[in-house]
Amino acid sequence: MKTDDAAVTRETFDQVILPVYAPAQFIPVQGKGSRVWDQQGKEYVDFSGGIAVTALGHCHPAMVAALKTQGETLWHTSNVFTNEPVLRLARKLINATFADRVFFANSGGEANEAAFKLARHYAITRHSPCKTKIIAFHNAFHGRTLFTVSVGGLPKYSDGFGPKPADIVHVPFNDLDAVKAVIDDHTCAIVLEPIQGEGGITPATPAFLRGVRALCDKHQALLVMDEVQCGMGRSGKLFTYMHYGVQPDILTTAKALGGGFPISAMLTTENIASAMAVGIHGTTYGGNPLACAVAEAALDVINSPEVLAGINECHERFIQALQDINEKYQVFTQVRGMGLLLGAELAPRYQGRGRDFLHAAALEGLMILNAGPDVIRFAPSLVVTFADIDEGLARFEKAVVQVTGAA
Ligand SMILES: *Cc1c(COP(=O)(O)O)cnc(C)c1O
């Protein structure tokens, strides 16, 4: 049935969108900094950050300026022609990291698809055609393409789509002995998130990450770090690997890279990059001038000592306030995470009720996330103010009162 296409409501969603999401009942229409307004003009504090994407809040002036300027200059050329913003952004990412080469795409899943193909291709061409095993982890999330859901550690996302890419094994995260038990000279890569995001905000332990690096070196396997969610300042350093002193061979990032404009990047070394050649992989939109100009603006702001130091100050304030709330209501068993990627694991009596907290928070004017059914996730703007943290967590406390029935 074709109806009036001017007025759209939450009911419209149920009529027109492929039924793979269950969005909140309100529809955001405007954002500024850490605040969002819905169709009825109700105001929210945003600690969801569009799932760790809007790293500089909504409509940050530097990003709006970059978007407007590039939008009136040149949008798209394809990779048949290169462009200035992509070259500037690549150079800045290389200068800031271990990497020598960058491949740009449009989403985290696509960057990971490129990373896994690169790891396989490198091993097959430099070592042996049977060096194809990928070791990955339970509860890992790497995207929704068939290869990336298969490397991901949640079978519910990869089941039901026919034959899966082969030679991928999953072991428990932070369990070095489990990796030792499956790694061999046919292993081409170990793939991990330095902080598991969707899986529940679980940081790698330093000993685990160092051990994985050593095993990769011993078996000539590549260490692929998926920093799609935890990269670009989220952890309090530009990339999470920098906290550990453990270098990846391939790193992917996305989400915060464009601050809401779709873009992703895969970073690697000169040696590994040289396994590729013209035509072996590619994308139409990846590295387009519009996305790269916006990402360059985001990177310039995020990768400054003031902003990175501010993230760590906000971390302290957040953790302290969450612990204060927990002392009053005993809703969590643990508050964890790094920088401004925080997870609060629900106490046994509230497990499975993550969505109830999200719903109660929305009623109080607060946008938050869950990470699985048992963890409440906070991924606010990296430049959130103390005032917004305090207001948002005051609203969160009211939501906790609602759900727990505490007075
Ligand atoms: C979000 C996410 C992805 C997938 O990114 P998309 O842009 O949704 O394709 C991959 N890996 C991690 C760790 C993520 O958090």
From TrEMBL:
Pfam families, sorted: Aminotran_3
Catalytic activity field: N-succinyl-(2S,6S)-2,6-diaminopimelate + 2-oxoglutarate = (S)-2-succinylamino-6-oxoheptanedioate + L-glutamate; N(2)-acetyl-L-ornithine + 2-oxoglutarate = N-acetyl-L-glutamate 5-semialdehyde + L-glutamate
GO BP: L-arginine biosynthetic process; lysine biosynthetic process via diaminopimelate
Binding site for N(2)-acetyl-L-ornithine: R144, T283
Subcellular location: Cytoplasm
Single GO MF descriptor: N2-acetyl-L-ornithine:2-oxoglutarate 5-aminotransferase activity
A GO-annotated cellular component: cytoplasm
Protein known as: Acetylornithine/succinyldiaminopimelate aminotransferase
Gene that encodes the chain: argD
